[in-house]
Amino acid sequence: MAENKNIVVLDVETQKSFKEIGKSKAMSLSKLKVSVVGVYDYLSGQYLSYEEKDMMKLDRRLQAADLIIGFNIRHFDMAVLAPYLFAPVANLPVLDLLDEIEKVRGHRASLDSVARATLKEGKSGDGAEALVLFREGRMEELKKYCLDDVRLTKGIYE
């Protein structure tokens, strides 16, 4: 469907939880800080992961993309990424699958529930587990978890 297109499917994992950054989450999503960003790059056909130290490289790829796809990407992932990116995130071409589902169904749904309904498989873990993996320095496991979410998001998109 989208092979050879300049599309990136993206998912962000964070270093901190909402509990740690305080109540006003809308204004402070950037305080969550990136631990890992997972992507599927349709141009290369590869799943790739970027740690916080790799954000300049990720920024170049996102700036070049014709479309960036994610699940709750507009209200979460892009806000977390904003301090790391050169251009304003509002200027990036984003397709938020959760927004599209909400328009049709009239309510929000989790990535896990949508994946189970459409792909017959669910998430491999949750955000709380991802925070533990980051804190314990288990980066390869964290990258695998994040890329599993990217794979589900890509499957839902396709």
Structure explained in plain terms:
With 158 residues, this protein is an alpha/beta fold. The protein contains 8 helices and 5 strands. It has a 5-stranded mixed beta sheet with strand order 3-2-1-4-5, sandwiched between helices. The termini are close together.
- Order of strands across the main sheet: 3-2-1-4-5
Instruction: Tell me the major beta sheet.
Output: 5 strands, mixed
Outline type: globular
Helix content: 40-55%
Strand content: 15-25%
What sequence of helices (H) and strands (E) makes up the elements? EHHEEHEHEHHHH
Q: How far apart lie the N and C ends? A: 7 Å
Structural class: alpha/beta
Summarize the structure.
This protein has 158 residues and is of the alpha/beta class. It has helices at residues 18-21, 25-28, 55-64, 73-81, 97-105, 111-119, 127-135, 139-157; strands at residues 7-14, 34-41, 46-51, 67-70, 94-96.
